[in-house]
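Sharing a chain and its predicted structure for anyone who wants a worked example. Both blocks are below, sequence first, tokens second.
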Amino acid sequence: METNEDLVEVLNDLIRINNDRIEGYERAINEVEDIDVDLRGIFQKMANESRENINELSAEIRTLGGEIATGTTNSGKIYRVWMDIKATFTGHDRQSALESCEYGEDAAQEAYDDALATDVDLPVNIRQIIANQKAELLESHNLIKKYRDLHQAVNN
């Protein structure tokens, strides 16, 4: 039973970072200018990606007989990042939004790395789910980084 509880906690940590990610992207959508339709679309896609991740992780937690986390993270070194991002939006400009989102994506990658490196015995199917989600999130990270780099190049 202890293994299941530990495994549920690992999965719940990932649910929390995805909840943080949704909150961060919803904030970003509200912070960018109306003209930034492209960014709004990307941010919405990424929030939806986290919703899908949460559904997949929740199904595994239910199978394990665990309680599914519903909130965002309020503690822990990795998870404070999205909360901090909410406070960093200074202007309503593309550059600050992209930089903040990239920072949050870095935190999500770190959370998934930690989950994969856990001492908890991860069944093969759950390890694969985590690895697949991490790969999808890395694509999102790289897209945000590409937009940020392009924006910097155009404005320098």
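Comments welcome. Helices lie at 2-31, 37-64, 80-88, 94-116, 124-155.
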